[in-house]
Design a protein that fits this description.
With 337 residues, the protein is of the alpha/beta class. It has 11 helices and 9 strands. Helix 2 packs parallel to helix 10 and helix 3 (91-104) packs parallel to helix 4. 39% of the residues are buried. It binds S-adenosylmethionine and iron/sulfur cluster (SF4) (2 copies).
Length: 337
């Protein structure tokens, strides 16, 4: 598969992010909330129709270490904004999670990163190898800032992942030398990477993005607004911190929420824990019903809506519904970040 290079709306989008950061961000978020509202509501009703037997998550996010080596202005994990006590997932907890996902029959998307830089975990290749062997049908993807990536590392991790996203965070719309090295090598050796989808994204390091439940460093000076749209994250994503807690979502940047603790239950039990159910019921009618969510304007970059729309389409066609539809379908889609 050839390497793909993306730059959202090209030079025009870049200049808009630089010159009118708030306007660019707010217009994008408004449009996304509007366009996705119907599908979001439909998916929530689909999800909740059998509360005892809910669908699988579509993405399991597993953070193995909670640190980053970069300085993106919009991200709480940036090395200058970091407030979390250092945590690294134990090998035992990692294997328990992967083994339980396999026993559960999970076949959806899986990441071994959260709010962090995955390549900072020195075990990252062996962790992916373990996951790949136990979960051969999962769509495993990695998103990295690429600062620690080189051709040798890419070749090491390649057999265990379906997709690699390299976010080239910069100020000048140019590839960093490490990113360029990867692009040149993959373009010169396409056969070697025919089974891996590599997506390089040009990203403005000082962009204004979502406020992530009030934690984004460059959105600290705003007056909080109540957001009444619903949110899909607790319906689509399982979010696992390095100490084995299931948190709300990627916006729990300080890792303080706990919907279940995998020290005390299995992943399947955790996914429909009483606290998860309570949060889902609150978000069914809007974010205003939960203190952490009330002012959060996060909306995902597109992957989840793509999966959710396919699940809804197939559900209508087949009328099968049921617990495993999402999981069976998720791995067959072309991913969009
Ligand atoms: C936290 S990073 C972790 C993986 C890796 N460090 C990277 O940057 O690709 C995952 C994604 O979260 C996004 N992100 C970080 N802060 C955000 C914010 N305030 N709003 C929306 N997305 C954000 C990043 O841009 C990236 O696409
Ligand atoms: S977006 Fe990724 S690279 Fe940037 S600070 Fe956050 S975790 Fe690090
Ligand atoms: S509203 Fe924000 S904090 Fe609440 S679940 Fe959704 S993304 Fe997470």
């Amino acid at each position: 598969m050839p390497i793909r290079i993306a730059n959202f709306m090209g030079r025009f989008g870049w200049e808009a992010q630089k010159r009118f950061p708030m306007l660019a961000s707010q217009s994008y978020l408004k449009a996304m909330f509007f366009l996705r509202a119907k599908s979001q509501k439909e998916y929530i009703e689909y999800f909740l129709r059998d509360p005892e037997n809910v669908p699988y998550p579509n993405v399991v996010n597993l953070e193995t270490i909670n640190r980053c080596n970069s300085d993106c202005a919009f991200c709480t994990a940036n090395k200058y904004a970091e407030k979390r006590p250092y945590m690294r997932m134990s090998d035992e907890m990692f294997r328990k999670i992967i083994d339980e996902l396999a026993d559960w029959g999970y076949k959806g998307h899986l990441t071994m990163y959260g709010n962090n830089e995955p390549l900072l975990d020195t075990r990252i290749v062996e962790l992916h190898k373990y996951a790949r062997e136990k979960l051969p049908e999962c769509f495993i993807f990695m998103s990295t800032n690429g600062l620690l990536l080189n051709v040798d590392k890419l070749r090491e991790i390649k057999p265990y992942i379906n997709q690699l996203i390299i976010n080239n965070y910069c100020e000048d719309m140019k590839f960093r030398p490490k990113t360029q090295e990867i692009i040149d090598y993959v373009q010169a050796n396409p056969e070697e990477f025919k089974d891996l989808d590599i997506l390089v994204q040009m990203r403005y390091v000082k962009a204004v993005l979502t406020n992530r439940a009030g934690s984004a460093p460059n959105r600290q000076n705003e007056k909080p607004k109540i957001i009444k749209e619903t949110c899909l994250m607790p319906y689509t994503d399982m979010w696992i911190t390095p100490d084995g807690r299931l948190g709300y979502c990627c916006c729990d940047n300080y890792e303080v929420t706990e919907l279940a603790n995998l020290k005390d239950c299995t992943v399947a039990e955790g996914w429909n824990s009483p606290k998860y159910r309570e949060l889902r019921l609150k978000l069914r009618t809007g974010r205003q019903n939960d203190p952490m969510c009330a002012h959060c304007d996060f909306i995902d970059a597109g992957l989840r809506m793509h999966t959710v729309n396919e699940i809804l389409k197939n559900d209508k066609k087949n009328k099968t519904g049921g617990k495993d539809l999402g999981s069976r379908l998720a791995d067959t889609f072309t991913q969009k970040q």
